[in-house]
Amino acid sequence: MEREVAANRQGNSPVTQPPGASANSLSRQQTPRRGGLGDAPALRGRWDGGGLAWQAFRGELPLVRKAVIAGNWKMHMTCAEARAFASAFLPLVASLPEDREVVLAPPFTAISTLHEELRGSRVALAAQNVHWEEKGAYTGMISAPMLLEHGVTHAIVGHSEPRKYYSETDEQINLRARSAQAHGLIPILCVGESLDQREARETERVIHRQVEQGLEGIDPLRLIVAYEPIWAIGTGKTCAAVEADRICGLIRGWVGHPDVIVQYGGSVNASTIDELMAQPDIDGVLVGGASLDPVGFARIAGYQVPVTA
Length: 309
Ligand code: PGA
Description:
Blueprint: E1 2-3, H1 51-57, E2 67-72, H2 79-93, E3 100-105, H3 108-118, E4 123-127, H4 144-148, E5 154-157, H5 160-165, H6 170-182, E6 186-191, H7 195-199, H8 203-214, E7 224-227, H9 241-255, E8 261-265, H10 273-277, E9 284-287, H11 294-301, E10 307-308
Parallel strand pairs: 2-3, 2-9, 3-4, 4-5, 5-6, 6-7, 7-8, 8-9
Antiparallel strand pairs: 1-10
Helix pairs in contact: 2-3, 2-11, 8-9
2-phosphoglycolic acid binds next to β9.
């Protein structure tokens, strides 16, 4: 039994390809996800404990294309709330299929607590941002070495909220992603258009620019790109699955590697996840509001896709 995905997709366009050009990406069936941790599938789930899997999850070995379900808690959850979430959530995801990874991005203050709670589980830990310097006079910022100390393996960069509220530029986002990779963290780089840009038919141009500038010098196999249309974030308006898949396919082509992991994000919930994950170019989701409820997020992590005989 195999997932039903579009056939005959191929290609590997360079990141400099003009916007609007067809990505023609390989499907997940044609590029099977080999367990997410390079050639060491037997070691999966041990990213707290050292060894090859830990190295792979720290970005020291190339990731391979597989589903990544990530929860972005934004400015929610005290340490006590994070602990309560973990005790409700972990039993629900203990026996998920091996074809997917689950990642949680708490606020910085709950990272250490959550790290303790997640120990021995198969849920990885992400930061919601990372500074490009290792240390210095950057009040309020957190660096990659500080995150590594707390078992963090991924870092969200370029989310539309810091782009909007703190005027983050593509150049700064690129520096953050570079620093993350240089320290063995996997950047989850977010891109996406505003409603005005979509209505002005600028979607492809905007995202192509974000990809080109944000990913300069970045290794595509130690990377996750999240397509997050700004108009769909926190609004309850999920982008139609087929359109999200089209943009994710374009992103894959612009990144220039068929195995890059491309997520969709924007009002994902338990009732939309199965259709989204059935799309051939959507490799996972970045979930905000719906990741705050352990039962609902476990349902998302346990997505099921249509199968064919
Ligand atoms: P949302 O947020 O799921 O609440 O729309 C997604 C995100 O901002 O990553």
